[in-house]
Amino acid sequence: MNQASLQNHPVTDRVLEALAVTKRGCEELIPEDAWVKKLARAEATGQPLRIKLGLDPTAPDIHIGHTVVLNKMRQLQDLGHQVIFLIGDFTSLIGDPSGRNSTRPPLTPEQIKVNAETYYKQASLVLDPAKTEIRYNSEWCIPLGSMGMIQLASKYTVARMMERNDFHDRFHANTPISVHEFLYPLMQGYDSVALKSDLELGGTDQKFNLLMGRHLQAEYGQEAQCILTMPLLEGLDGVEKMSKSKNNYIGISEEPNTMFAKVLSISDVLMWRWYTLLSFKSMADIEALKKEIEGGRNPKDAKVALAKEITARFHGAAAAEAAEQDFINRSKGGVPDEIPEVLLSGAPMGIGALLKAAGLAPSSSEANRLIDGGGVRVDSSVVSDKGLKLDVGTFVVQVGKRKFARVTLT
């Protein structure tokens, strides 16, 4: 099928609603007019569109920033379209150079297998597993062989490849670029050919690779996919993108109480951004809630609702309710029902050494900093004396709002 097959079908209200769902929170939809035609054709013929998301299993765990594109997949899945969760087990052997200033070390097949299993298990908390097609790009990349690879490489020029920002910057900085890195966008684009994709999703950093899919589909005589880029989610600080290295993230496998409390810690401004990208509430419901807040309702009510929705998605409604109750108890100075039990010897022990030994502070100097900031309590009383020594006994020790331990000192 080529682009000429995109006949004009009636653009119904349902098509316009599907377009609005598609564009919610997105950065770019390219080209929008072709996507409207695809939606109209699907509506007229009853033939669902094929929507692809490729993920390289480069790390075993994902955080809620990664779920922005998964949420979009789920929204399109709920409209009746076929979503394809593509695991890049072959492309992981190359290493994605997107946004890199150096060659990414490839993973071993064993690492890829372990990470892929974890990735899909976590993604299934957002996608409907019964309606998700799972594919591995080794299915078609390995049979392509060396002859097929050469033929594929002939369909794109070096000049156009060097237009890519990371390649361009590395070349002019005299930073090495390995020839195999040119294969990555070609192989990702070829995935779209193999899957006959109608729409491919990705982060804004994937735009070059997504456009490669459009180019190669046209080269192979197929109807070109549309591409949808989603923004990178700001982390808890509201400034930097969510990242484990910046410690501003919420892991989707984190404990419910921690997840709930972290969502409540974000700013009132960032909350609305998260509602758009992470919530499954309709935009009409979100706008109504925003008007209530502007009319005087406490913004914390909206934030609690968001925290419960996100926590329930990954842990269930009961865990979300319990996490809310736990947060209420802690805000009143209460102690959670279940906290770690720690047995230490060496009484009398200085408070700094005790915090380090109990795993509540990484070092004695950090413990002292926490004490200076008023963040340490022993049996609900704030500790202000860094020279405090605790004698034999059992104490509830608290650091910040979320770290507790019941320490028995002998």
From TrEMBL:
GO terms for biological process: tyrosyl-tRNA aminoacylation. GO terms for molecular function: ATP binding; RNA binding; tyrosine-tRNA ligase activity. SUPFAM superfamilies: Alpha-L RNA-binding motif, Nucleotidylyl transferase. Transmembrane segments: none annotated. It is an enzyme of class 6 (ligase). It comes from the Bacteria. A motif ('KMSKS' region) lies at residues 241-245. It catalyses: tRNA(Tyr) + L-tyrosine + ATP = L-tyrosyl-tRNA(Tyr) + AMP + diphosphate + H(+). Keywords: Aminoacyl-tRNA synthetase, ATP-binding, Cytoplasm, Ligase, Nucleotide-binding, Protein biosynthesis, RNA-binding. Its EC number is 6.1.1.1. GO terms for cellular component: cytosol. Pfam families: S4, tRNA-synt_1b. SMART domains: S4 (SM00363). It is found in: Cytoplasm. Residues 349-410 form the RNA-binding S4 domain. A motif ('HIGH' region) lies at residues 57-66. InterPro entries: aa-tRNA-synth_I_CS (IPR001412), aa-tRNA-synth_Ic (IPR002305), Rossmann-like_a/b/a_fold (IPR014729), S4_RNA-bd (IPR002942), S4_RNA-bd_sf (IPR036986), Tyr-tRNA-ligase (IPR002307), Tyr-tRNA-ligase_bac-type (IPR024088), Tyr-tRNA-ligase_bac_2 (IPR024108). HAMAP family: Tyr_tRNA_synth_type2. Belongs to the class-I aminoacyl-tRNA synthetase family. TyrS type 2 subfamily. Catalyzes the attachment of tyrosine to tRNA(Tyr) in a two-step reaction: tyrosine is first activated by ATP to form Tyr-AMP and then transferred to the acceptor end of tRNA(Tyr). This is Tyrosine--tRNA ligase.
